Amino acid sequence: MSKKKKKLLSVIIIFGLFITSWIFADTVSNSYQKDSVTQIYLDKFEEPIYSTLYYIVNYYYGKENVDYDKIVDATIEGMMEGLDDPFAWYLDSVQTEESKIDIEGKYGGVGLTIRYDYEMDAVIIVSPMNGTPAQRAGLMPNDYILSVDGTPTSELGLSKSASLMRGEPGTEVTLEIYRDSWNEPKNITLIRETIETKTVKFDKLQYKNKNLGYILLTNFAKSSPQEMTEALNNLSNQEIEGIIIDLRNNPGGLLQSAVDITSMFLKSGEVVSVKYFDGTKETIPNIPGNYYSFLQNIPIVLLVNGGSASASEILTGALKDNDVATVIGETTYGKAAVQNTFTLSTGGEIWLPIAHYFTPSGSDIHLKGIKPDIEVSNPEREVISMTEITEEEATEAFYTTTEKPVINIEEDLQLKAALDFLTGGN
User: Fold this and answer.
1) Contact (CB, 8 A) for 114 and 123
2) What positions does the domain PDZ occupy (predicted)?
């Protein structure tokens, strides 16, 4: 697993896992056939892999304690790493569960954002989500989860702790919680509910006597087009004089969601073109009927940075190349790989690039990114502690289940530049 992927896997939200930058489409079969070409490679793999397994089973000193599921996962992950492609991944069964939640936008659980505190060797709560069982139970940022249903989180780790807290709505889960102000830990039993996260957050801003719409799009899930429709319906009734679409740190998502949402802002023209593994090409135009006419005569700004990737870059490239929006911020991530998922008997999935996409102008942005029209950088924040939960981080996590964005104009130079651009300021 790459260092970049490991870093992003170190922070997990119970409702999902944001995995680097991703976009995938159902374009090829999820089954395989042992044709003559494939058999050549199977023959090449069979002897060394089976021989290695034979020696482990028969000669390894610690053979009684071998976790063969772990060996299978490591073998598959090694095959993906052997491709030397940063976008060819293997997700084990737990990670696969996380990614599917990300795509669906809802799950059965208690509504917590968590991460792992390696100093305390326990899971720490970033924040409960608004309107969830965790919030109603009074759980707070910086509380520690010592065990889930009696199993210590130090043994489970982050991913398995998150997985164990999820389950069918209406079922119980007991968390052992420790808070600094308590003399001893307390067991708190929660009833799981359906937790629905919001990928689109919006608000109306008044800036220099103008009404401006602000839309934060966190990723491209199945629910994102409907959420964007609700946001635009709301803003269309408020005499908006300009729109900001914030794609910063948006890692991507579903290709179809990207096309659906782009078509809401693009009256006509090409959204993206795709070249597949077999040499075939596809040009994807805007979807007639998706466009919001109130946008026709108002300026649009896209905010991007190095974390804006994949589907975010499809939206950015389409609106930029079709002269619909001005792009402000920093050069985007640069991922034009379209991945397909293939389910394995382990319960995991391989994510394999099956195509590359190109922006409407024909630009290949892979590993290059999209340069903004106006370059603005936010100052890097000093990291005081890897475990400290900041107030801003906790607030953002709290609003995960709501349409409310967290906005701080004074400290956000990129957002301020966008507002000044839309109002003609300096």
Assistant:
1) yes
2) 100-166
Question: What are the distances in angstroms from CA 109 to CA 14, 50, 128, 188, 388?
Answer: 8, 41, 12, 14, 25
Which pLDDT value is given to residue 29? 62
* 257 assigned to active site: no
* Residue among 88, 125, 153, 113 at smallest CA distance from 18: 113
Instruction: Report the C-alpha gap between 246 and 12 in whole angstroms.
Output: 22
CA distance 192 to 203: 30
The angle subtended at Cα 207 by Cα 234 and Cα 379, nearest 5°, is: 105
Pairing of strands 200-207, 210-217: antiparallel
Among the listed residues 246, 310, 312, 320, the single catalytic one is 310
Confidence of residue 388 (pLDDT cuts 50, 70, 90): confident
What are residue 105's phi and psi, to 5 degrees?
80, 10
One-letter amino acid identity for 238?
A: Q
What is 281-344 written as a DSSP string?
Answer: EEEEE--TT---GGGTTS-EEEEE-TT--THHHHHHHHHHHTT--EEEES------EEEEEEE-
Contact 110, 192 (CB under 8 A): yes
For residue 186, pLDDT over 60 is answered with yes
- Write the CB contacts of 172 (distance below 8 Å, at least 6 apart in sequence): 189, 190, 191, 192
Among 321, 323, 368, 416, the active-site one is 321
Residue 224 contacts by C-beta under 8 Å, 6 or more apart in sequence? 105, 199, 200, 217, 253, 254, 257, 260, 261
DSSP 16: B
**Active-site annotation holds for 149:** no
- The whole-number pLDDT of residue 104 equals 86
- Full set of structural domains in the chain with CATH: 106-196 (2.30.42.10), 200-423 (3.90.226.10)
Percent of the chain whose pLDDT exceeds 70? 90
* pLDDT, tens digit (0-9, with 9 covering 90-100), for 85-120: 999 999 999 889 888 888 888 899 999 999 999 999
Contact 310/251 with Cβ under 8 angstroms? yes
Q: Which of 335, 364, 373, 385 is catalytic?
A: 335
Q: What is the pTM of this model?
A: 0.87
Examine the residue annotation and report whether 335 is marked as an active-site residue of this protein. Answer: yes
What's the angle, vertex CA 295, arms to CA 291 and CA 298, rounded to 5?
160
Residue 119 to residue 122: CA distance in whole angstroms: 8
